Amino acid sequence: MSELNASAAAFKKQAKTAEVIPRFRVQQQPKPDPIDLSDEEPAKKKTKIEIVRPIYSQPDALSSGQEVITNMHYAMQYLKRDGNSAGKTSAELEGYLSLGGPLPASLIHILRKNERIHYDSQTDTYSFRPVYNVRSAPQLLALLEAQKTCSGLSVKDLREGWPNCIEELDRLEKEGKILLIRQKKDDRPRTVWKSNIEYAPHIDQEFVDIFRKVVVPGRDQLPRELQSLGLKPTSVDPATAIYRQAKGDTKQKKPNKKLSKVTNTHMSGLKDLGMRR
């Protein structure tokens, strides 16, 4: 017990005489105050510089060319709808197109160079030039008579210079002066040919009645009627025809053989010595 007290007293004495080491403390830095950005000017955005390159493949005024083509189309439709061989003057075209002035030089050049428009320099008139210059029934018959080929006339092309030709075509067809091919959908004329009346001789009504009284035998009776007259028909008589029944598939199907799996075929000649184990 005495030894413990002596060691405790020695430890306390040593602790009192020991050098005191100061404790190191880390000082926290104060947080900075928030910066008020309301007084500062906002950052300027960078503006993109757009480089405009000129388009060399198009004119500067794009509407000028389109306007001329449009006026040319309207003028051609106006001349085509008019159908008057006398034509229209420049003043009448100016009034119809509502240009507010004389015809532009570019429009005049296009109208006079167009193959479907005829310009008369003496009267300063423009007229539509159709495929066929026909505007009446006598002109149509004269054109068909002057044709050197047997090709027909298209009614679509004929209506360009003669819009109201359907009634006259129907009348000429009834009179036997022309031949018409009509459309199946609406029975409107599609092609016109000349009808040669001199090649259609007159037939007495007696022969017409006899022809209509002849009854053509049916398809089943026609071969027998020809054989009775000593003629050979090109088809077989249905009564004597032998119809072969359609046979099924004559090919025999191969039997399904179930093959067992064979292993160790290369050792089939060896003896099995497993029985001796």
Please give a structural write-up:
This protein is mainly alpha-helical and 277 residues long. 35% of the residues lie in helices and 8% in strands. It has nine helices and six strands, in the order ααβααββαβααββαα. It has helices at 2-17, 62-82, 90-97, 105-113, 137-146, 155-161, 166-174, 205-213, 222-228, and strands spanning 88-89, 117-120, 125-128, 153-154, 178-182, 189-194. A hairpin with a 4-residue loop joins β2 and β3 (125-128). The model is unreliable at 57-64 (pLDDT under 50). It is found in: Nucleus. One of its GO terms (cellular component) is transcription factor TFIIE complex. Residues 21-43, 247-277 are annotated as: Disordered.
Which helices and strands appear, and what pairs or packs with what?
Layout: H1 2-17, H2 62-82, E1 88-89, H3 90-97, H4 105-113, E2 117-120, E3 125-128, H5 137-146, E4 153-154, H6 155-161, H7 166-174, E5 178-182, E6 189-194, H8 205-213, H9 222-228
Antiparallel strand pairs: 1-3, 2-3, 4-6, 5-6
Family: Belongs to the TFIIE beta subunit family.
GO molecular function, one term: TFIIH-class transcription factor complex binding
Domain TFIIE beta: 56-135
